[in-house]
């Protein structure tokens, strides 16, 4: 039985109020107050502690058919969140339990019990379940080991390598015996982080010189695997550097998410034929069969100290949109998290 006095009268939540044209602006969003009610049978009421902002959310702001429905206008947005159960009308969930669920972008969430997963804050900080132990970690794990068919001795190139997914891809490859791991990032500070903290063999600032030129310098003998978080000139450069029978996992194209015109494809796509390359997209939802192995491996690597991760934390739901826009601009190192205080 829940203590109904713990239920607040109102909750704040972010609504999308206009479809962005190009780069989103603050005017496309509104932070609104809504009433909070006790959970219905089979539901739990969760006070969100941390929420995720991710690149894929930009695509959901467009009213186009995709692998995931678009956000509705004048309705709360959603996304990964971790919180504490404050009222329960569902078997198996007690007040005080911590859960992972998909109703972020709000302070309090009424969650159907089947859509919530208990998480253990003693194994890792709760925010880690939105990053290294959550969807980004699983994306990196499945994208490298299953989609790209990584094997020991492969040379690997990762774009957007200081982000939530890329920083893990490079480390997973090193742990599993890559011959060489190269990363690109958008600042000299991030480049330094890749080599000094995450153990990449080489890294470069893609803003400093053409990507193809820098990649050839970092991997003169070519690469076997490319993990693409960026698209554009990075994909074109990778096609040039991939060896025969190379594999590329196409995870994201953040460089193009705010374009108002379609971006041109790689000019060297014909090389895919002669090199017999495999370019394959990944959606993490296709790979949840790997979840148990993923958690076992990653939790072990965290315990041993082999795997390191960073978070960029923005405090306060009122700053949620600023955090999202900052993530699109590459202002985060590792996972961008919005934490709720007070």
From TrEMBL:
Keyword vocabulary terms for this entry: Oxidoreductase
SUPFAM superfamilies: GroES-like, NAD(P)-binding Rossmann-fold domains
GO MF annotation list: oxidoreductase activity, acting on the CH-CH group of donors, NAD or NADP as acceptor
Pfam family, one: ADH_N_2
Domain of life of the source: Bacteria
Domain Enoyl reductase (ER): 26-338
Protein name: NADP-dependent oxidoreductase
Originating species: Streptomyces venezuelae
């Amino acid at each position: 039985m829940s203590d109904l006095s713990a239920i607040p009268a109102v909750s704040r939540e972010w609504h999308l109020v206009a479809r962005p044209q190009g780069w989103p602006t603050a005017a496309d969003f509104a932070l609104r107050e809504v009433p909070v009610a006790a959970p219905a049978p089979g539901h739990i009421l969760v006070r969100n502690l941390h929420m995720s902002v991710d690149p894929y959310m930009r695509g959901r702001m467009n009213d186009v058919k995709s692998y995931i429905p678009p956000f509705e206008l004048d309705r709360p947005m959603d996304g990964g969140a971790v919180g504490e159960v404050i009222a329960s009308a569902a078997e198996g969930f007690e007040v005080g339990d911590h859960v992972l669920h998909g109703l972020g972008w709000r302070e309090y969430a009424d969650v159907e019990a089947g859509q919530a997963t208990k998480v253990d804050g003693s194994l890792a900080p709760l925010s880690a379940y939105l990053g290294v132990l959550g969807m980004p970690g699983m994306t990196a794990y499945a994208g490298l080991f299953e989609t790209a068919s990584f094997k020991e001795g492969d040379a690997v190139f990762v774009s957007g390598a200081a982000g939530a997914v890329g920083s893990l891809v490079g480390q997973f490859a090193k742990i599993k015996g890559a011959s060489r791991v190269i990363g690109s990032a958008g600042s000299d500070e991030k480049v330094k982080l890749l080599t000094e903290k995450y153990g990449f063999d080489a890294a470069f600032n893609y803003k400093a010189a053409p990507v193809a030129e820098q990649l050839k310098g970092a991997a003169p003998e070519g690469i076997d695997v490319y993990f693409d978080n960026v698209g554009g000139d990075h994909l074109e450069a990778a096609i040039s550097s991939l060896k025969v029978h190379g594999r590329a996992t196409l995870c994201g194209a953040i460089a193009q998410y705010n374009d108002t015109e379609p971006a041109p494809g790689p000019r060297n796509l014909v090389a895919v034929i002669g090199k017999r390359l495999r370019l394959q997209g990944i959606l993490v939802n296709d790979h949840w069969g790997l979840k148990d192995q993923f958690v076992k491996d990653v939790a072990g690597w965290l315990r041993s100290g082999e795997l390191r991760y960073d978070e960029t934390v923005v405090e306060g739901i009122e700053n949620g949109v600023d955090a999202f826009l900052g993530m699109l601009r590459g202002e985060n190192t590792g996972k961008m998290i919005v934490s709720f205080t007070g």
